[in-house]
Amino acid sequence: MSLSRRDFLKITALAGAAVGVGAPLLRYLLATGALSKVAETHYLMGTIVNIVLVAEREEQAREAIQKTVGKMRDLILIYDHRRLDGPLGQLNANGVTHHPPRELVAVMRQALHFGQLSNGAFDITVKPLLDALQKQQPVTQTIRDLIDYRQVVVTEESISFSIPNMAVTLDGIAKGCVVDGGVEALRQLGFENVLVEAGGDMMLQGVQDGDGWRVGIAHPRSPGNIIAEFFAQNQAVATSGDYMNSFSTDHSSHHIIDPRTGHSPSHLASVTVLAPSVLEADALSTTLMVLGIRDALSLLEALPAASALLITKDLELIRSSRFPSI
Fold it and tell me: What is the structure's pLDDT at 206?
């Protein structure tokens, strides 16, 4: 969900000031000066990243934010396939990368898990297909034969392809990984009451008067407006939609591609996912867009810790069984 800074501030205004402790106590501590709420905006991964935390001393908080941004930048270098001297760049160029960073091993295993879970609706080996589409080249059978997450071999010692000329992209999962990494970095620095958000993918920690954070979902056909709201706490939120990077006026062609067909999925306008981590929410929001209504709801029933709100092309709102009331 690509939010402008104004959109993000709208969400945090709805959410209020509660970040990790009871709202009445937090308001009292902020009012008396015992605690300060510190917020900074940075530009990473081609999007706005917002970090908000509550601390006893502002100087300490800003130092922690700078260290956290540094950690997030390090993770971006690991996950970026565009960095030719990085582990993913080496993997795509040579078919193997040796001694991969443990963070990359963990994310690759998660990505392959989602590939298996979705029967290929989520597939990080889709890069050759995406490259062909970007260059407006035909998607040949030779290219289609390169799309198969099952041909990626991941061990602690190396990551490799079983088929020559394969290539991977982590664009469908990396942003969530980076946000999770930011939250973990702040936790290790002693900050539990935080919000880290990147392009609309965020971790919501804390409550507001017992109800949680009040979150607005963007209207897929009316930019700047909200189509639904819900409350959540201590959960990750991510949204994928056909309106974010649409290549046709009717939104039939957009940046989300079904790896199995080479075309944009045609049933849903957007999907908002709640999950324990931003990695999971990020990957699932894309996966569910590709799967369509029936298969998306079926998958969610098998994932007790995840839920979603599906919005159809006709703007019908469909909640999975565990998604909060809207």
Answer: 57
- Pick out the chain residues at pLDDT < 70: 1-35, 206-212
Question: Could you tell me if 119 and 195 lie in one domain?
Answer: no
Inter-residue contact 251 to 36 (CB < 8 Å): no
Which one of 161, 195, 214 terminates a domain? Answer: 161
3-state secondary structure of 218: strand
* DSSP assignment string, 32-75: HTSSEEEEEEEEETTEEEEEEEEES-HHHHHHHHHHHHHHHHHH
pLDDT given for residue 30 in this prediction: 45
What 3-state DSSP class applies to 157?
coil
Closest by CA position to 53, among listed 181, 176, 189, 174? 189
String of DSSP letters for 238-298: EEEETTTTBSSTTSSSBS---TTTSS--SSEEEEEEEESSHHHHHHHHHHHHHH-HHHHHH
Dihedral sign of CA atoms 99, 168, 163, 122 in order: positive
One domain, residues 144 and 193: no
Closest CA to 274 of 284, 264, 286: 284
What range does the domain containing 268 cover?
5-71+173-319
Choose the final residue of a domain: 100, 126, 161.
161
Amino acid residing at 118:
S
- Residue 324 domain-assigned (yes or no): no
Tokens matching residue 211: 């109800």
Closest by Cα among 260, 288, 258 to 273: 288
pLDDT score recorded for residue 200? 82
Q: What is the pTM of this model?
A: 0.86
Q: Which bin fits 292, alpha (ψ -120 to 50), beta or left (φ > 0)?
A: left
> What's the domain count of the chain?
2
pLDDT at 86: 94
Contact, 326 vs 214, CB < 8 A?
Answer: no
